[in-house]
Predict the structure of CENP-C homolog.
Amino acid sequence: MTQTRSGRHSYRPVAYWRGEQVIQEVEEQDDMFNRAAGFVMPKIKEVVRVPLEGPHPRSAASRGRSSRPKPKKVEPEEEQQLEEWEVSPGVVEGEIVLWEPEHEEHPPADDEAVQVTDERIAISASAIQTSDIRDATFRFAKTLTMPFMGAGVVDLPPGGEKRPKNSRKMHMVFFVHTGKVMVTINEAQFRISAGGMWFVPRGNYYSITNDYDNPSRVFFCQACELSASFADMTQQSVA
């Protein structure tokens, strides 16, 4: 607290919320107009200040350490126990109803007589065995072959490539199971990671390239419209 030339006291603002305060006392002053009586005026005796708290000193153990939170430890995924059929024989054969054209408008009832046959309806991971393709740098396995639809997987090692090919009458769907690949469809080109899908419309050229350091597995499915001619019902292979 300082005193100005005019006798007034000057001090910086008081932070009452922190406990600072101004202590005053009364002092009798002479009245120049009435010498027989004086008057009382408050006088600042003291300004109580509360010192600011400085930053807490860091312990020796914490000096030099980053304030960033520690990354959470990623627990390894628990290996799932395989079903008996997945180990051997690796496929499931089941009785299915043979499709008839009239089933489109009138699906058969539960008690209606229908033609049935046995077909493979599931395949385990270990039973999907890819094979080398002649003059190619990828491996291939066909898991479903129908006149109007097909499915399978393509394995591309690092540097592997499925050279440009026309999809012809097939509309194709691809799903990246593992790894990452570069895809070209007609004039469009992009890279896609595991979990992504892409589509090749009928009559378009496409290619797949794995120019990464890790292998990649891609699932594909393709379908076409049926024509009256049996020759046109022959499925176009992706390989």
Observations:
- Residues 37 and 48 are 33 Å apart (CA to CA).
- Residues 84-87 form the longest helix (4 residues).
- The mean pLDDT is 81.
